[in-house]
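User: Assemble these into one structure.

Assistant: Restating your components, then the assembled model:
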Amino acid sequence: AQSVSQHNHHVILSEAASLELGCNYSYGGTVNLFWYVQYPGQHLQLLLKYFSGDPLVKGIKGFEAEFIKSKFSFNLRKPSVQWSDTAEYFCAVNAAGGYNKLIFGAGTRLAVHP
Amino acid sequence: GAVVSQHPSRVICKSGTSVKIECRSLDFQATTMFWYRQFPKQSLMLMATSNEGSKATYEQGVEKDKFLINHASLTLSTLTVTSAHPEDSSFYICSARDAERGAAYEQYFGPGTRLTVT
């Protein structure tokens, strides 16, 4: 069965600090990978996605993620966070090649202090 | 584009009653919709996958007789929580997939419905 693990449950940073959130998945086949963000009181929004091609994916708001197939990882990065990045971040995966369900990680709650 | 709405956003009901939650895709046709449940400070857990015109596929452990899903049109899916109990109190989120768009596997999420059963 597919699973997604996010290593950090709660991250606290100061503004301008760099961010890296870990995400590992378990699935032997080809996958599609996603990072979603949920700002306080708002619905899930897609930050970025990887389907194929360049393993370094750039998303909205300065976020990027790198797919490392050999490590089954899809870590999210941002070089300089802002207070407005305070939110919960979810990594998700589904098996490519069909209308398959999304499996979510447990989420990482990021708090950015000014 | 790709907006999904849910109604109501919040609902409080008494134990034993039923509650219907609507999920609509506003600017695209959703051949597949998904229903999730999110507990406080936890991730989204998929409850069921709903395909237009066919029966929903429920995840293991989800009671299909309790959580009735109907996907009668390409823009509307409903989740009915029957004979609700306090343990059904949760945040219910739907998402929709538009196979006509370029990102075939991307899901667009609704804002969620907070259900409180007293």
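DSSP finds no helices and eleven strands in chain B.
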